[in-house]
Amino acid sequence: MKYLSKINSSSDVRELSLEQLEGLADDVRQEIISAVADTGGHLATNLGAVEMTLGLHHVFDLPTDKLVWDVSHQVYAHKLLTGRREQFHTLRQYGGLAGFTKRAESDCDPYGAGHASTAISAALGIAAARDLAGRDFKVVAIIGDGSLTGGLAFEGLNNAGTSKKDLLVILNDNTWSISKNVGAMS
Questions:
Q1: How far apart are CA 20 and CA 22, in angstroms?
Q2: Quick one: 4-172 is in which CATH superfamily?
Q3: CA torsion angle for 140, 152, 143, 97 (degrees, to 10)?
Q4: What is the biggest distance separating any 2 CA atoms in the chain, rounded to whole angstroms?
Q5: In this structure, what DSSP letter does residue 52 have?
Q6: What pLDDT score was predicted for residue 115?
Q7: SS (HEC) of the chain
């Protein structure tokens, strides 16, 4: 754990070079594999989201900027980068870290997710509240291709598109949900 042991916040990630970020990605993957082997959890989704998560933490200023994860079954790397590394071995255990985002765990979890297709609407709500309060920060919704097939995601996209709010939506298009995606939208 050459790099991960030195990461306590997004600001630590933003200071790393590209070569160091690659090393951090390896460390994060090893920590996720180790924890999931002991406690169970979502392995593939989290391993597949490591570089995306590092990129988000490298670019955005958490907790000021807000990352809203859809379903949030891909947030293990996010948890490791936001001050929860020491508790990560308690993942999905009674009294331990939740397997999803949880507002009570970190100020870097602005939305407690667990259901699909809600991230865009939740992020839009955060962006609208930001604008009403006259604040200045970025809001990012991260949604997978499986969640994008849900009606609430389309409602969120429709409302976000007409609202003209400063909001970024990232589609993690990996062609899989819990199982292979089906239907015309996928």
A1: 5
A2: Thiamin diphosphate (ThDP)-binding fold, Pyr/PP domains (3.40.50.970)
A3: 90
A4: 46
A5: H
A6: 79
A7: CCCHHHCCCHHHHHCCCHHHHHHHHHHHHHHHHHHHHHHCCCHHHHHHCHHHHHHHHHHCCCCCCEEEECCCCCCHHHHHHCCCHHHHHHCCCCCCCCCCCCCCCCCCCCCCCCCCCCHHHHHHHHHHHHHHCCCCCCEEEEEECCHHHCHHHHHHHHHHHHHCCCCEEEEECCCECCCECCCCCC
What is the domain partition of the chain in residue ranges?
Answer: 4-172
The SS3 of residue 168 is: strand
Cis status of the peptide bond prior to 63, with omega within 30 of 0 = yes
Q: Is 39 helix (H, G, I), strand (E, B) or coil?
A: helix
pLDDT for 73: 85
Residues of the chain with pLDDT under 70: 175-186
